[in-house]
Amino acid sequence: MVREELVKGYENFRKAAAKLSEDKNAKLYVYFIGERDANGENWCKDCNEAEPVFGQAIQEYADKDSIILRVEVGNRLAWADKENPFHKDSDLRLEEIPTLIRWKTAMNLHGDQCKQIELLELLFKEEDV
Questions:
Q1: What contacts 74, CB < 8 A, 6 or more positions away?
Q2: Structure-derived torsion over alpha carbons of residues 89, 116, 19, 66, reported in degrees to the nearest 10
Q3: 63, 27 Cβ separation under 8 angstroms
Q4: Is 47 known to be catalytic?
Q5: If we measure between CA atoms, which residue out of 74, 84, 85 comes closest to residue 33?
Q6: Which residues form the domain of 16?
Q7: At 96, which CATH number?
Q8: Are the C-beta atoms of residues 75 and 43 closer than 8 Å to each other?
Q9: Active site residue 114
């Protein structure tokens, strides 16, 4: 069964990614999204639009040994800050959200690509490169 976890902020992301990467039998996917408010609403319009498609893709295409790490990158103001560590991290260099990365590979989808079920299927079914 696909395992899903949620973390908020850069430091929590780094800790979770390091820990989850230790499971060599699992495929780790990291999904970067905007922060949700108390009502569960995301300030990021694209993240909201991608969410149902992403959920469907997980159910239909992700291997049962997959781990989905959802990472909230902060509120709109924090995301817009050029010093935001998600932008500056040499492993990430995130420029837009949502972004889905197959951790420790070159496979990723950005922005509107995360709304396309066909591209999500390809990413989830792609073997290690």
A1: 8, 9, 34, 35, 84, 86
A2: -160
A3: yes
A4: yes
A5: 74
A6: 3-125
A7: 3.40.30.10
A8: yes
A9: no
pLDDT in tens, the chain (129 residues): 899 999 999 999 999 999 999 888 889 999 999 999 888 889 999 999 999 999 999 999 999 999 999 999 999 999 999 999 999 998 888 999 999 999 988 899 999 999 999 999 999 988 654
Q: What is the largest CA-CA distance in the chain?
A: 39
What is the phi/psi pair of residue 100, to 5°? -115, 125
Domain count, the chain: 1
Catalytic residue among 17, 20, 33, 47: 47
Give the pLDDT of residue 32: 97
Tokens of 20: 């989850």
- Count of positions (residues) in the chain: 129
Rounded to 5 degrees, what are φ and ψ at 123? -65, -45
Q: State the amino acid at position 33 in one-letter form.
A: I
Element of type H or E holding 14 = helix 10-21
From 28, 44, 68, 71, active-site residue? 44
Amino acid at 78: A
- Distance between CA atoms of residues 108 and 25, nearest Å: 20
